Amino acid sequence: MRVSATAKYTRHSTRKARLVTQAITGRPVAEAASLLRFMPQGAARDVLKVLNSAAANAENNHDLDPEDLVVFSAYANEGPTIKRFRPRAQGRAFPIHKPMTHITVIVENRDVPRRPRTAPARRSRSTADREA
């Protein structure tokens, strides 16, 4: 079962937050959390909060064991941009853009047996003609 958590309007660049989210995708939750604690990026703290929230959602709302959870997907989407102006010399004003990011983390329980994906069986024309 997949469980998600989202943090909207975090004050980070989307490009920088994506570096952090790509690093934890596919890892167990405990390993991803320890990795995020020691990452130097500022967005790692917000991604860690969302990861902990997703694990808590899985445990409290769906009775899943947090030890069995794996980060199925983590992504950072672009949010709105706050626009400000910095006064400069001779009456000019330079724009300042303060980007925001929406961070989503989806965790999945890996104890569920997964069916292997197989391609449909291909039959030769002679076999298909005999069955018809």
TrEMBL record:
Record InterPro entries: Ribosomal_uL22 (IPR001063), Ribosomal_uL22_bac/chlpt-type (IPR005727), Ribosomal_uL22_bac/org-type (IPR047867), Ribosomal_uL22_CS (IPR018260), Ribosomal_uL22_sf (IPR036394)
Keyword RNA-binding: yes
Spans traversing the lipid bilayer: none
Keywords, comma-separated and alphabetical: Ribonucleoprotein, Ribosomal protein, RNA-binding, rRNA-binding
GO cellular component: cytosolic large ribosomal subunit
Pfam families given in the database record: Ribosomal_L22
Region listing for Disordered, in residue ranges: 109-132
GO molecular function: rRNA binding; structural constituent of ribosome
Compositionally biased residues, Basic residues: 115-125
Record-linked CDD domains: Ribosomal_L22
Stated family: Belongs to the universal ribosomal protein uL22 family.
Function: The globular domain of the protein is located near the polypeptide exit tunnel on the outside of the subunit, while an extended beta-hairpin is found that lines the wall of the exit tunnel in the center of the 70S ribosome.
Subunit note: Part of the 50S ribosomal subunit.
Matching HAMAP family: Ribosomal_uL22_B
Protein name: Large ribosomal subunit protein uL22
Organism: uncultured Solirubrobacteraceae bacterium
Gene field: rplV
